[in-house]
Amino acid sequence: LMRDHAEIIQFAALYEARRGNTPLAQTYAMAPITVGLTMLESDNVTLIEYLVGLASVNIGLDTLETLKDENALSQTDIKQQLTGISISTDSLRTPIQREYLGMRLALEDNLDLPQNYLYHPNRTRNELYTFMSQVAENSVIPCSGDDSASSADTELIDYVEEVQSNAFNPTRPNMIGNMYLSVVIASLSGVKN
Fold this sequence. Notes:
Low-confidence stretches: none
Oligomer: single chain
Distance between the termini: 20 Å
Order of helices and strands: HHHHHHHH
Number of strands: 0
Radius of gyration: 21 Å
Structural class: mainly alpha
Shape: elongated
Mean pLDDT: 84
Largest sheet: none
């Protein structure tokens, strides 16, 4: 719903720019940025709320760029609008940590099984912690601007491939734990993108 709202506001900004109402177009373009930043800076923001807020900010920035491309706004106007706006480089860490706590509770509530060859609860909890800690640490690494993976990302990708290859293999210990971790990994696969 929030993303849809931002896209409707984007349409309104472009419509007003084409009508020559540049001040209103600029106000509309900044609205998704303002709302998105409010979400990002909220106390107790969840991972999904953070990502929705980030998507809203991106829609607003795309709208400003489109207005510039259509000569409705100048680069100077946009720089002036965005002065003082920033997203902290470690702002994603806390939502990821909250996500880990929720997953840990879900693990303990839903997989209350005795330890055996197919399920090692301590190993599963430790691997979940290791994985989520690495995701949180990687979230503060600035993007390089190209599509190449950092060494930290490469290590994480190797770990993900190992877990997923063991998830449905009954000859490997902790198959049930690896299946759970595969679900966690799949749910977070788009976070960096």
